[in-house]
Amino acid sequence: MKSTSGGHAKIHPIAELAHIVERLKNGGKVVVHCHGVYDLMHPGHIKHLEAARGQGDVLVVTITPDRYVNKGPGRPVFNEHLRAESIAALACVDYVAVNSWPTALETINLLKPGVYIKGSDYAAPEKDITGGIVHEREAVERNGGRLHFTDEITFSSTELLNKFFSVFPAQTKEFLEKFKAAHTADGIISAMQKLSSMKVLLVGDTIIDEYHYCRGLGKAPKDNMICTKFISEERFAGGVLACANHAAGFVKEVRMVTCLGTEEDKLEYVLDHLKPNVEPKIFTRSDACTVTKRRFVDPAFLDKLFEVQFFNDHPLPPEISSQVRGFLEDTVAGYDMVLVSDFGHGFIDDKIIEVLCRKARFLAVNTQTNSANNGYNLITKYPRADYICIDEPEMRYAARDKYGDIQAAIERIAKDMRCAKVAVTRGHLGALVYDSSAGFFEIPVFSDKVVDRVGAGDAFLSVTAPMVAAGIPMEVVGLMGNLVGAFKVSIVCNRSSIDPVPLYKSVITILK
């Protein structure tokens, strides 16, 4: 079949392309299908597509839409329209479409190509960290097609983009060059995948985050009050729930210990919003509601207008505290590590802390300073820890040092708490990580856009704590933590948790 002249004329919506392919197949044509991101067109792509064209009569190419390109900060460099036009400009390509899904599976099932083409770098399925090539082969063969691997000259779009189109400032590029001299993406991913055998006990405060989306109307005529129009609302599983879901993507098992109020709808919500490998142990207190933070948000730019908090931060009733301690006494020793997410909302008292510090084989702790506990929830209320993960203001509160050298403050707190590993997050300045035997490492920030900062520290803690417990070097811990942070700030509140596969793709991207 003769290709339609002109690049734009080759580009069709995916549903329309499906009808075109069906007509071609009914006419006896062998339809060949390629799929990818194609962020930077290079000779390797051209050779690959020309070889693909030789496997049949018509070549169709689908590309991953921008919203599903999980290759790290600043990617894709070229938007889906430019990428589609670049592919369509090639003489060997007959039709182009932007995919509607995260992977090629739905597209394969829709188009049912006679031949599906991948490059030789996918010939060894065990090297594909997504596992996608196995499912793609199954889909192709189930629909009567065959999988073919081209063996042409290869280049890396990612490597070329890093070299000539880097989205990072000079300081970050310099850091990455030094980091690559000591660490490889394959080594980091392999170490991360070994976390899948770990059992983690997670203890902390449950928080239900509510976003009530409103549009501002202006000042009320008779009162000094801003009026808004309600649009919609959304609930998120926050606090220890978010930490559990983040950690569950990387480890074998998470046992989550927390406390709720007596509201049945909140209990049902919590149970419905935990990953399958999170096993909850929930205590209830009749003298308090489940901690809920209701934020009123302008949806246009996600500007937060104000917040109402529902909580009772008085210490646990003695009988509930006793039950929690009894459970921990019997349980803690059976886990590889204990991760404490302490928001200072009344669940974790001094007696519970004593049990955790005495029984945990490895203890990772975060104590959050927030508007409800400002100055009262310091990391120093824990006599010991193996890993401390807090932000810089929280470290300065604990050290009682507002303007002094932050490294000196970290060393002093680490010594007082007999803690060998510390991570201090610093917002746009990145992170500062400390190993008592290796010293300090400054890790730059990798985020190129910020949608919502809520929960970024929880994600950093939840992924890095198992890494530290497994003995992964702190420089690597810091880099992975900041990549996690970059993913998290692009997500509204805790709408989704950190997925290992896009994270690993991001590691590959920045270290090529």
Question: How is this structure best described in words?
Answer:
This protein is of the alpha/beta class and 512 residues long. It folds into two domains: 8-164, 3-Layer(aba) Sandwich (Rossmann fold); 189-511, UDP-N-acetylmuramoyl-L-alanine:D-glutamate ligase. The protein is built from 17 helices and 18 strands. The protein has helices spanning 14-26, 43-53, 80-88, 105-111, 132-142, 157-164, 170-182, 185-193, 240-248, 264-272, 318-331, 350-359, 392-399, 406-416, 456-469, 474-488, 500-511, and strands at residues 31-36, 58-63, 95-98, 115-119, 146-150, 199-204, 206-219, 226-239, 253-260, 278-284, 292-298, 303-310, 337-342, 363-367, 387-391, 421-425, 431-435, 439-443. It has a nine-stranded mixed sheet, with helices on both faces. The chain has a five-stranded parallel sheet with strand order 3-2-1-4-5, with helices on both faces. A four-stranded mixed sheet has the order 8-7-11-12. The model is unreliable at 1-7 (pLDDT under 50).
Provide key terms for this protein.
single chain; 512 residues; alpha/beta; Rossmann fold; UDP-N-acetylmuramoyl-L-alanine:D-glutamate ligase; 9-stranded mixed sheet; 5-stranded parallel sheet; 17 helices; 18 strands; 36% helix; globular; disordered N terminus
Task: Describe what is shown at a glance.
The protein is an alpha/beta fold. The chain has helices at 14-26, 43-53, 80-88, 105-111, 132-142, 157-164, 170-182, 185-193, 240-248, 264-272, 318-331, 350-359, 392-399, 406-416, 456-469, 474-488, 500-511; strands at residues 31-36, 58-63, 95-98, 115-119, 146-150, 199-204, 206-219, 226-239, 253-260, 278-284, 292-298, 303-310, 337-342, 363-367, 387-391, 421-425, 431-435, 439-443.
